[in-house]
């Protein structure tokens, strides 16, 4: 007799029991019954909406909407190759996708925090989701590493969790969810977000493998100059002074670059430009 076909949604639901065991050591914090049912419904809807041929950007939008159910307006996802230490996209891997405040993204890369981010360091050593507060209070976390989390809080990312996503041949990605207040994530919240992150990661990987190599967008010489200096941490005013053009002209070029690279962030545009080989730092 032929076994019933299992959808991706039903497969991920079966993981819930095993994942919940990872958090059995945390003091229990129970959801009201009505909230528990509502979140289960939202999780099922998220699985059904993403269990198809949606592109990476659409998947990210669906995950962002799902995370809002748990008070997380900000999420970030990035892939790293085995020897890569910073959160920049590897060649042919999905680009970094995030909706963190632009000011924090610019500050993060300007200060080189991608090289000392304790969340990334911890993610490489962990198998399950973890709270940022665990990382902050860990004895092995240095003061410089704590500064990354302290500054993130000043930009509104006051608490969060991260989900390590390990793959074959040492491949590694990490998904983070952040809240604008100092409040620990409940156990059930962590379970839902970890399962959603895993499902998102698998769908993005499947889409990337099926879509093949994407051709690099064509940038004009001036656009290349603007995005190069952006990647080096320069503001629009500074770029204008270097290139001898107005701030408005710089912003015009950067807007065109972001459109061509399909992102609303100049920081992510710079990362994509490096990844595509359009510029070299």
UniProtKB/TrEMBL annotation:
It holds the Pfam family GerE. Residues 212-277 form the HTH luxR-type domain. GO terms for biological process: regulation of DNA-templated transcription. GO terms for molecular function: DNA binding. The lineage of its organism: Bacteria, Pseudomonadati, Pseudomonadota, Alphaproteobacteria, Hyphomicrobiales. The keyword Transcription regulation applies. This is LuxR family transcriptional regulator. Keywords: DNA-binding, Transcription, Transcription regulation. InterPro entries: Sig_transdc_resp-reg_C-effctor, TF_LuxR_autoind-bd_dom, TF_LuxR_autoind-bd_dom_sf, Tscrpt_reg_LuxR_C, WH-like_DNA-bd_sf. It comes from Neomesorhizobium albiziae. The keyword Iron-sulfur does not apply.
């Amino acid at each position: 007799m032929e076994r019933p076909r299992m959808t991706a949604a039903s497969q991920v639901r079966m993981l819930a029991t095993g994942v919940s065991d990872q958090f059995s050591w945390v003091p229990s914090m129970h959801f009201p019954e009505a909230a528990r049912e509502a979140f289960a419904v939202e999780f099922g809807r998220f699985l059904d909406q993403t269990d198809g041929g949606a592109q990476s950007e659409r998947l990210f939008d669906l995950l962002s909407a799902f995370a809002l159910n748990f008070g997380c307006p900000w999420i970030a996802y990035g892939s790293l190759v085995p020897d890569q230490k910073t959160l920049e996209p590897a060649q042919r891997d999905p680009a970094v996708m995030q909706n963190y405040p632009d000011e924090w993204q610019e500050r993060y890369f300007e200060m080189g925090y991608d090289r000392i981010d304790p969340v990334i360091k911890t993610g490489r050593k962990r198998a399950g989701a973890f709270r940022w507060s665990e990382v902050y209070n860990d004895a092995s976390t240095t003061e410089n590493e704590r500064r990354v989390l302290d500054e993130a809080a000043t930009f509104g990312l006051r608490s969060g969790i991260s989900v390590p996503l390990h793959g074959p041949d040492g491949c590694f990605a990490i998904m983070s969810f952040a809240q604008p207040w100092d409040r620990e994530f409940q156990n059930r919240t962590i379970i839902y977000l970890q399962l959603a992150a895993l499902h998102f990661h698998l769908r993005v990987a499947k889409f990337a493998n099926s879509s093949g190599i994407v051709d690099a967008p064509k940038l004009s010489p001036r656009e290349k100059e603007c995005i190069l200096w952006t990647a080096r941490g320069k503001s629009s005013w500074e770029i204008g002074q270097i290139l001898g053009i107005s701030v408005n002209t710089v912003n015009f070029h950067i807007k065109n670059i972001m459109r061509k690279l399909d992102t609303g962030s100049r920081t992510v545009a710079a990362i994509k430009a490096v990844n595509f080989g359009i510029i070299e730092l």
